[in-house]
Amino acid sequence: MSGRNLLFVPGPTNSPDRILRAMHVPMEDHRSSSFPALVGPILSDLKKVFKTETGQAIVFPGTGTGGWESALVNTLSPGDKVLSFRYGQFSHLWIDMMQRLGLDVTAVDVEWGEGAPPETIHELLSKDTKHEYKAVCVVHNETATGVTSDIGAVRKAIDAAKHPALLFVDSVSGLASLDFRMDEWKVDICVTGSQKGFMLPAGAGIVCASPRAIEQGKTAKLPRCYWSFEDMLKANATGYFPYTPSIPMLYGLREALNMLFEEGLENVFARHHRLAEGCRRAVKAWGLSVCARAPRWYSDTVSAIMVPAGFNGGDVIDVAYRRYNFALGAGLNKMAGKLYRIGHLGDLNEITLLAGIGGAEMAMSDVGIKVDLGSGVAAAQKYWLETATPLPAKKVAGPAESAAPARRPAGVA
Question: Which end of the chain is more exposed for a tag (fewer CB within 10 A), N or C?
Answer without folding.
Answer: C
